Amino acid sequence: MPGNTIGQLFRLTSFGESHGAAIGGVVDGCPAGLPIDQHAVQMELDRRRPGSTPLGTARNEADGVEWLSGIFEGRALGTPMGFLIRNNDARSSDYDALKDVYRPGHADRTWEVKYGLRDHRGGGRSSARTTAACVVGGAIARQLLTRDGVQVNAYVSRVGEVALGGIPADLAPVWSSAVRCPDENTGARMAAIIEQARAEGDSVGGVVSCVVRGLPEGLGEPVFDKLDADLAKAMLSINASKGFQIGSGFAAAALRGSAHNRLSQGGLAGGISDGSDLFFDVAFKPPATIALAQETLNKTGEKVMLEAKGRHDPCVVPRAVPIVEAMACLVLADHWLRQRMARIGRT
Question: I need a surface site. Which of 205, 274, 283, 307 has the fewest CB within 10 A?
C-alpha cells in the first residue's frame, strides 16, 4: 500500500496496526557514523505512549523499542535501521460491536470503501497507535539535527476555548505538565476542560504549537517541496489533525501588505528557511470515538445508535506534542541533507 513513507533522502517507512502483533518502521538515509543515543529515542517514545499522561487513554503500553538493524556499537551503519514496538495491552474484544458499524467522524467507512475490507480493532492502520513509529524515526532525525544546533520544541497552546497567548520564552515546563502546556495556570484550566469532557463521555479539540530554533538558512526546495509545504503535509498526516498555519497564518488574510511585511514570516520566505525561528501551529479535532450515544450507519446502510466502548483519549493534543516534534524533525532532517546536495560552492 503506498503512502507509508515520508522523506526523500532521510526516509521513514512505517508498518503495523493498532491491534496487530507489533508496529514498527525502517529509517533509511541516516548518515553512517552518526552516534545513536538509544536511551534518548526511548525517552521520546515514552512521552507519546498510552498511559504517559493521566489525561489520556487508559491503554497502557510499555512501548519498548526493539532495534533490528542499522546500529552497531552505538553508531549508525548507514544501512536501513529496522525497529519494532510490540502491542501488549490491546483489548480487541472492546471493538466487537464495531465490526459491522461505522463510527461517525472516523475512517471506518472510507477505509472500507477504498480497500474493500478493514481491521475494525482499534481502527487498524488508521489508528494513532501507528504514530509511535514516527516518534522513533523523528528521534533519530533529531539527533542528526542537534549536531547542527537545531532545537525543535512543541507544546499545547489551546484546548477548547482556553488558549495560551504568544510564544513562551521558557518551554522547559512542558514535560512536567500533564496537558503539555508550559504555563501552569493555563495548563490547569486546559486539564479541567479535558476532565469535564471525559466525565460527560465527550471529547474536545485543541492546538499544538511548535518552535524551531537554530535552523540554518536555505532549507526548502521550490516549487513543490517548499519547506512549509512539506511541513504542512507531515502535520496533516497526523491522526485527527485538521489545520496547519505557519507564521501569521490565517490572520494574514485580514492584513495589508504594509502591516504584514513588518511581521515575522514564520521563519521562511518563498518556502526557504531564512535563519530566524520557525513557528507553526497544528489544529486537532475532538476525537471521534466517544461514549455518548450517536446515530450512525451499519454495513447495510441502516441507521443505528452507537455507544462506543474501548479506551480512548478525550483530547489528543497532550500526546500529540511529541508526534508534532517528531514529524517536524523528519521533514527538517530530510531538507538538511537535501540542502547539502543543492550546490558545490560559490564562484
Answer: 307
